[in-house]
Structure formats: structure tokens, C-alpha cells
Design brief:
The chain is of the alpha+beta class. The protein has helices spanning about 5-15, 20-40, 50-60, 65-75, 105-120, 150-160, 180-190, 215-225, 245-250; strands at about 85-90, 95-105, 125, 135-145, 165-170, 170-175, 195-205, 210, 230-235, 240. A 4-stranded antiparallel β-sheet has the order 3-1-2-9. A 4-stranded antiparallel β-sheet has the order 5-6-4-7, with helices on both faces. It has a two-stranded parallel sheet with strand order 8-10.
Length: about 250
């Protein structure tokens, strides 16, 4: 069992949900529409990308009617806007690598928003490929410790379901999977009676970097700036947020 700091950042993001709920719901709906449209099937059991998008949306309490509306939009006569995925890479304070995923119908607008966010936080937008090599695509399944099996039983369930690793992250466990095994492992755990809080594809840092509290604070400010953009979907970094830093920043 290994440790990883992503959950502290995730909690930080969830903590701001109430203040940004409308914008967040709009982003989640956009992802669902795009996943349904590109996958060509409105049924999540036949569309892995859609299933993952719905699972993530549910973890942020997106209402069922909004999820269905987003799916319907993909197959309406209008079909909604034509969004494309765009990746931005750059560096925050202390040389921390930052990887940004966006969905946009206007690349110029999104690029301007992302560049401004980096500039305001003292970072710098880099060229394509400048930080991507420091991350790898993986599936993450979050399990609340309350009501979960003990670690040994849970690890057995994870291995039987096809998971790669089980991490202890404060008040949750995080199961790591291969990118193509996320849905199967999630289903296996649910079938085993495990309460899954969240399941999504992420970009995990290959080698987390130790930082000071001040650097972490500046990078988190950059993340907040980036997530203020309606087009930015997810922001990843390679900071190692220790328990001490998380406590100091109240994450």
C-alpha cells in the first residue's frame, strides 16, 4: 500500500463546490454530452466514456435530470456545440508541472484564459509535451473508509476486481487501475459490496515533487485560477502534498 496526495487537492476542489456549483454543473454536463456524442451511444453500459463521465458527475451530486438532459442534448437535432479537447501544459511556482485538460468550442478564448491564469499566479505556459511526460493516465476509485472493509479484506477485493494498487489517503482509500480497467474494477468492487464514492480517469504524476507550504499555496491558487475558466475541465500537478502541508493549508 502506497501513499498519494491527490485527495487533499480533490477535497480542496470539492470544498469550493458550493460557491461554484452552477459553473461546475455546466462543466460536468458538457463532459457527459461530449462522451455520449463521441461514443455514439446514450447507454452508459455500452459507452465506457459516458459511464465514467456519469460516475464523476454523480460524485459531485449532479442531479439525475441534468445528467439525462446532457445525454439527450448529444442526440438532439441541434446536437449542441462542437467541442474539442485541448491540452495545455506549463509550470507553476517552484517549477511544479501543471497539466490542464479543457473542452472548448473556441480555442482562442480558452488559450487566452489559460495563459492569463498562469500569468496571474506567477507561472508560465509551456509548449506541447513540456510536462506531459511527467504524468501517466490511470483510473482512480475513491472509497470512503467509513463502512469500508478492513484494509486486508479491501485489498483482496481490489486484487480480485483487477485493481493495481490500494492507497491510504486520510479518510478515504484510493484504488488505482489501468486506464482501460476502471469500469470493470469499479463494477467488481460495487458487486463486492464496497461503497464507491468516485471513479474517474486522471493524470497521475510519475514522481511527486516535495514542496514548501508557500509553493503549494501558490500552485493551488493557480489551480483555482484555471478552474475559473468555463472551458477547463481538470487540472493536474506533480506536487507531493504532505499531511503537514495539507493541515497548514486546511485542505
Amino acid at each position: 500500500m502506497s501513499g498519494h496526495s491527490k485527495w487533499a487537492t480533490t477535497k480542496h476542489r470539492k470544498g469550493a463546490v458550493d460557491a461554484k456549483r452552477s459553473k461546475l454543473f455546466s462543466k460536468l454536463s458538457k463532459v457527459i454530452t461530449v462522451a455520449a456524442k463521441t461514443g455514439g451511444d446514450p447507454k452508459p453500459e455500452n459507452n465506457a466514456s459516458l459511464a465514467a463521465a456519469i460516475e464523476k458527475a454523480r460524485s459531485y451530486s449532479l442531479p439525475k435530470d441534468k445528467i439525462q438532459s446532457a445525454i439527450d442534448k448529444a442526440f438532439s437535432s441541434a446536437g449542441g456545440a462542437n467541442y474539442e479537447e485541448v491540452i495545455y501544459e506549463g509550470y507553476g511556482s517552484g517549477g511544479i508541472a501543471v497539466y490542464v485538460e479543457a473542452l472548448t468550442d473556441n480555442r482562442n478564448r480558452t488559450a487566452a484564459d489559460v495563459r492569463a491564469a498562469f500569468t496571474r499566479a506567477g507561472g508560465a505556459l509551456g509548449a506541447t509535451g513540456s510536462v506531459a511526460f511527467q504524468f501517466e493516465r490511470r483510473g482512480e476509485i475513491v472509497i470512503d473508509k467509513e463502512g469500508a472493509p478492513n484494509e486486508e479484506e479491501l485489498l483482496t477485493a481490489v486484487m480480485e476486481a483487477g485493481g493495481e494498487d490500494l492507497e491510504d489517503n486520510d479518510d478515504v482509500f484510493v484504488v488505482v487501475t489501468g486506464p482501460n480497467e476502471l469500469d470493470a474494477v469499479t463494477k467488481g468492487l460495487k458487486d463486492a459490496g464496497v461503497n464507491v464514492v468516485e471513479a474517474e480517469l486522471v493524470m497521475r504524476p510519475k514522481v511527486p515533487v516535495t514542496v514548501t507550504t508557500e509553493t503549494a499555496k501558490k500552485v493551488l491558487r493557480l489551480i483555482d485560477n484555471l478552474e475559473d475558466s468555463d472551458d477547463v475541465q481538470d487540472v493536474y500537478h506533480n506536487m507531493d502534498i504532505t499531511e503537514e502541508i495539507a493541515a497548514a493549508l486546511d485542505l
